[in-house]
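Archive entry. Fields below.
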Amino acid sequence: MKALRRFLRRFAVSVTRRNDDQRLREELEAHLEMQTADNVRAGLPLEEARRRALLRLGAGETIRANCRDERGLPALEDLAQDVRYALRQLRKAPVFTLTATMSLALGIGASTAVFTVIERVLLRPLPVSNPNELVYVTDERILTQASPRFSYPFYAILRDNNILKGVAARASVGLNATVNGRVERVNGELVSGSYFSVLGVNTQMGRALSSEDDRDPGAHPVAVVSDRFWRRTLHSNTAVIGQPVRINEHVFTIVGIMAKDFTGTDIGLPTDIWLPMMMQREVGRALLTEARTNWLEIIGRLVPEMTTERAAEQLTAYLKRRTSEESLQISARQLILVPGDKGNSPVRRELGPALAVLMALTGLAMALACINVASLLAVRSAAREQEMAIRLALGAWRARLTRQLLTEGLVLAVLGGAAGLLAAPSAASLLVASQSPSLDIDASLDPRVLALGVVVSVLSGLLVALTPILASRRAGLGRLREAAAAGPMGISRRLMIHDVVVTLQIATALAMLVSAALMVQSLRSFNSVDPGFRADNLLLAPLDPRAAGYDSDRVDGFWRNLLERVTQIRGVRSVSLARTVPLAPNRQRQHWLHPTSGEELELDTNFVGPRYFRTLDVPLLRGREFGDEDGRTSRPVVIVNERLALMFWPGQDPVGKGVRLPDSGNQLAEVVGVVSDVKYRDLRGDTDPMFYRPLLQTRSTDPMTLHIRALSDPGELVTAIRFAIHNIDPNVPLFQVATLEEQLDASFAQTRQAALLTGVFGVLALLLSGIGVYGVTAFAVTRRTRDIGIRMALGAQPRDIIRTIGGRTATLVTVGLGLGLLGSLGFTQVTGMLLFGVTAADSATFAGMSVLLALVSLLAFSIPIRAATQLDALVAIRHQ
Amino acid sequence: VAKRDVQQGTLALMVLKTLEVLGPLHGYGIARRIEQISGDLLAVNQGTLYPVLLKLEQEDAVSSAWGTSENNRRARFYRLTPGGRRRLRAEAQNWQQTMALIGRFFAVKTEDVR
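PREDICTED_STRUCTURE:
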């Protein structure tokens, strides 16, 4: 039925086309006659009249051709024909098609995924007006910290300057939002009234917060919600403006829904709800007059034509003037302004270089994918040489053949690209998730990334098609004859392109394999490094007491109660709490006075619960561990790590020494214990000096993480723990339970990804370079069968045959390995930062991988050579 | 190609207007009319008219049928369709707006800008 319809349509097209042509011919003839008649009437002789009419009308053939162009779509028809032909060719060789498509899909998918993350974390400017004018106000702490914070009184002084166009303050705060009786943990942000106007962002509905909402503490219970929160939790209900929402223990009124694309200035931590700075007490912060607590990020907008350096200079001068006037407790600092156009990200500093390395790796993988496919196509084109020669002989244009081959490459690229781009978003989410469990980045393809993916696909298609096209240029009428009488010279010339491809393949394969081997060794080193704690069977559950309305007076009771309840759960060995979790992004620092120099130092300080070190299995070197008795009424105590002991009391026993606490009027605390160093920041490198303080002495209502050491698989405990917490206080929800092992894994995720990527491509390249070597050798053997036969008849030994044929292959492999070694050396310099416990120029790895490749090449070489040496001389001579 | 497109666009508009004013007409008649009014736009090549006519017909702006010319010659006559009439109105208005706008731009003197 379908075939019949198609036949009829084709028939109709061809018939009408002829009629159209006929009609046009008649029409043009009538036109000419009328013009001639007019010309005759004007007094011209008939002949001249006709000639002028013809000139006036123009060449009939051109007109008809132009009309034909209008009528059909010849370019598209040709393309469709090429695509159909290419698809038919690909269908005929399913293994080839699958290998080539997969190779390209892997390359394109991986590079698109990595680029998606890079674009989100490193490149994308904030969706605000003139992001280039935005600056973060920081000081010399920027050298060691990603984003130095300031106190509210400091901000209040800085705000009144007239050097910047505007200044805003912000701080992230975890919130419990209750909608329709359901509690949800959301990312909140306390912002100054100037925040939205300084950034220049607006709401899609309702209004943004203004300075009117930021006048008196506790007087402005209003909130702006994000588009995501509005869609997800409020079900896109447009009637929510003016409606109440319960946040922690207080009711706020929703006044606006933020523009769709703006999710705050923190990349990786999208804001759900913005609250006025003056409402901080209602969400558990009371820091408006606290000059010693640095918690605010300050964002400013430069006036046009102002440089960051000049503005920083003037701001510092302004600050010196004001602080001396008002004799405030704030030391005037040398301010540094850093560009704020891309917002701030807790992960950018750590992730940036690693992502760049991953990008370089995927770039190489992409190149290798192209070389692989090109080599496969080259092998095919050798097989199709006869076909090409015949088509040329039958009158096909060379350009048409080239276009055909190009179409084949592009069809492959489109197939591979489509598969890769389809997989890219999920690959990107996996990539994001494995970098850091807390990172929240939208990994969907955006137009820019998509465009890049398409460009990469098309380029790879062109590149891939290059080999067969170059090979086909020499395919000609001569080929047919030459096939019958191949001379050694002919062979050496015609193998050139395959040689280049095989050499490149060996070189890139070596670079990939070396890189993969180094990554695998690094992973092994990572696994064998002692982090200072035991990670297995340890469950982490972050909890925010402030969100449930606990103040510093009531919070201790909650913690004690919680510890007691959870300890009783069957399968739990030990339970404790801590502010800072090993290898998680957040660190807490406090100011401590050095006992001998009296210098004030900002040092890592962890607030931990009783039995913390026992729960984490951190060896106690001297003194004792914190216990239940270390509470608010008992003597202040601290525990230090080895490095701190060495820094504060070198050569002495720190136990029993006194040290001034950073807050509460610089009370004196006694050191009661020394523990061995724990790697909190990174498994690589040294640990930092660290103070531990008993949580129950700090009055802190900060979010803490419950640490649960299970007897066996901790996953089974989650429900019981959830239940226990709910029983104590249903307002404290439990979110994001993770294991310490996951945290540990995430800390070397990039190395693992690099290992996987280079490993997969390395092995693929190893196989394909084997096939390449096989192909080149087998081809030489087939072409020279008669030659070999004659030599053997004349008394040549197999050794001679091997030397004749093998010399060429050996050269290829050697050159490939040489190039590969050079390439690897350069390449591992780039990937060096992902390595651990192994040097980038590890000679054993280089040698090992070279030998592996050489062996595979030898194996691939020996199969066709064996066949050659076992030829019967007489049969060989009669060959072709 | 771009240049031809522009020319074709202008030509198409002229063809439509000619058919509106003069009623059904054959290719030669349309060519003469356009020459009379526009001077040398078609002077180079009357033939360029035919692809335009074909395109207009494909777009259902005009229809065509064989007929007899004023001096009894067989010729193909083009006639404006209702769709063509609508298109002519829309394009004419569009054209005038553009003209008015460009006109204003050229009318502004340098002093006015300052």
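CURATOR_NOTE: Residues 480-493 of chain A have pLDDT under 50 and may be disordered.
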